[in-house]
Design a protein that fits this description.
Number of helices: 4
Structural class: alpha+beta
Order of helices and strands: HEEHEEEHHE
Shape: globular
Distance between the termini: 13 Å
Helix content: 40-55%
Strand order of the largest sheet: 3-4-5-2-1-6
Strand content: 25-35%
Radius of gyration: 13 Å
């Protein structure tokens, strides 16, 4: 594993821990590095309410900033789907219905589910 891959994996680990701290549900990491040029990992989770989705997003951003990783772009603030682009990883935080509707795990099924980033 080269330095860039290690960095991406560390970033995914930080995001997973941040989501788990705020009780994110069904946290999933998909390695898309072999099938996408835009990022190495998708980190996906959902919350049970709009306020929990916001708390998940805020905690991910706080922990990533503490580790020195800059948010490049964010789409959404809460609600159905928030996308947080950190370059090497993209974090997707949904509400339960949004996650079921968009079903990124199915769309990116050519990627590899990572059990422990």
């Amino acid at each position: 594993m080269d330095k860039a891959q290690e960095t991406a994996r560390d970033m995914a680990r930080i995001a997973v821990r941040a989501l788990e701290e705020k009780k994110g549900e069904d946290v999933c990491v998909i390695d898309v590095s072999r099938i996408s040029v835009m990022t190495d990992y998708f980190v996906i989770a959902h919350g049970s309410s709009d306020s929990q989705v916001r708390a998940l997003v805020d905690n991910v951003d706080e922990k990533m900033q503490e580790a020195g990783h800059t948010l490049r772009q964010q789409e959404g603030k809460g609600g159905t789907w928030v996308l947080m682009d950190y370059g090497d990883i993209i974090v997707h935080v949904f509400d339960k219905e949004g996650r079921a509707f968009y079903n990124l795990e199915r769309i990116w099924s050519d990627g590899t589910i990572v059990e422990e980033p």
